[in-house]
Amino acid sequence: MKNIVTVIAISLVLAVFWFAFKPRPEVVVDRAMRTAMIDALVAELNDHYVFPDKARQFEAVLRQREREGRYDKTKDGYRLATQLTADIHGVAKDQHLKVRFAPGLDLVSEMGATPAATRAEWVQRTNFLERLMARRTAAREVKTVGRLGPDVGYLKLSSFPDAISVADKFGAAMDELADTEGLIVDLRQNGGGDPKAVALLISYFVDRPTRLNDIWDRDTGNTFQQWTHDKLAGKRYGGGKPVLILVGPRTASAGEDFAYTMQALKRATVIGDRTWGGAHPMSFYRIGEHFFAQIPNQRAINPITGTNWEGTGVTPDIAAAPASALGVARDLMRRRLQGSAALVAAAP
Question: What pairs with residue 216 in β-bridges?
Fold first, then answer.
């Protein structure tokens, strides 16, 4: 059975890569395709978008643009998807909310599997593929683990992959960093990922069970709490040693989650420039033969601030240009460690 699962997994990965590089069919968006797609988009927004009142405003704007004939001359799918996204963002610029054009997109039939019977099933399958690809690339996401001098650790992360796939990598990294006196976490080019992986990494920096962000789910109406993990694959760094986090405009989504939550816990000092500003977890919804939508259907709520970083980004504690943030952090860390050493020396 295990071998069968492995063969299926490898086949899915190969199918995704084949689809990514195969020639795209020429698709001309006609009136029927456009109308059906916009109808489906409006329905999915009303059913799933995290703020129902905003979804109704999206619908009103899109219908008004339709009546005005704004989309009638747009035959190119990429341009139409871009225009629809821009019109929606004119109401609320939710960074994760996008309309996408993917000519020939049919992930299920491309892989020779039984076509999805429902939209929910299609979403479930595409999300599975995302998790599968994340696990295949997890080893590359812990980009750099090292030291900036004998006592200062350095951890650079380009994303937060699926929590299960990256648990051992986090554990190995934290084992290597455990005996440093301070740590700089570089998220300046972190594109995001799995909120559960964020909770897992934060667990290394606290001494007791800690409540992190709550997640409200539009589809179920339920709120579930994210807590730190009791059992970890590596050594706990603890809640006392200084941690500095580097951020910038390319710090997005789950990368922002880590910086925002550590900042709210007063467990780290954030250095750099304001981040991207996307806080709403999203899912994928098929809205036509060649179109799909990324629709945020959940909302993070920090129990300390009562809000999140959507639209505003994470505001650093110390402003610095991204290119110079590491230098600023190294200087600050040096001063903090020298101060700590002086306090220890002066103690009776």
Answer: 223, 299
